[in-house]
Amino acid sequence: MTTFFVRKNLLYLFAGGLFVVFVLLSFFYSVFLSRTKAVPIYTNFYFLVTEEMHVEAGAELIKLEGGAGYVLCCEGREYAVISVYLKEGEGESVHAAMTQLGKTVQILPVKIDYLYLKGKDKKKESVYLSALNVLKGYISLMEECVGLLDKGSTQESVKRILIAMRRQILYTVKQYQREYSPFSRLCRQIAEGLADVENEILYASELRYLSCQMVDGYLSLCGQFKL
After folding, report:
1. Measuring CA to CA, which of 9, 25, 75, 84 is 20 to 30 A from 157?
2. pLDDT tens, residue by residue, 1-31
3. What is the chain's Cα-based Rg?
4. Are 66 and 154 a contacting pair, CB within 8 Å?
5. What is the pTM (predicted TM-score) of this model?
């Protein structure tokens, strides 16, 4: 009988302790949320990826076939990326065409709804939103250049767009160097990737790779403002 009551009391104590811990965690979480500002950005990207198990080998094969061949790490898993899109419909049309050719591919959607700003970051909300909008514009322009090459536009016409884009990106590097240094560093990397555009033959696969790199950078910047 005594053992039964001891066990019963221990269970009550354990349950009571769990309840107290739950209440405390809920309190601290609510305090945390009250000091955090959720800024909506509602951005979607659609990666067309292979379902191969050997990601590195798959990426190299994708490059040979004209795809990006970019290795993306998303939620602890790696994917070999063929291309990335801002609009779901574009990704679906390419997915359907590749499926008809017997390719095993899938669309990997990545969605970002909010930036969660805390402390001093709340004062820089406009800076972060402006920078991310600028980067999204560059991504869209890169996607457009890929489309132009795929449709048979001349090297010179696409190069003119990319050269002008690189100049603008270099200006962006200086513009955000003090206000948002991680974004400035990313823009510098993008500009370096475009450095030889003027003197080399353009390949859609290389531009697709750069596009994936830009989107991955965008996701990394947003990842700094997760809950």
Report:
1. 84
2. 556 555 555 555 555 555 444 433 333 334 3
3. 24
4. no
5. 0.83
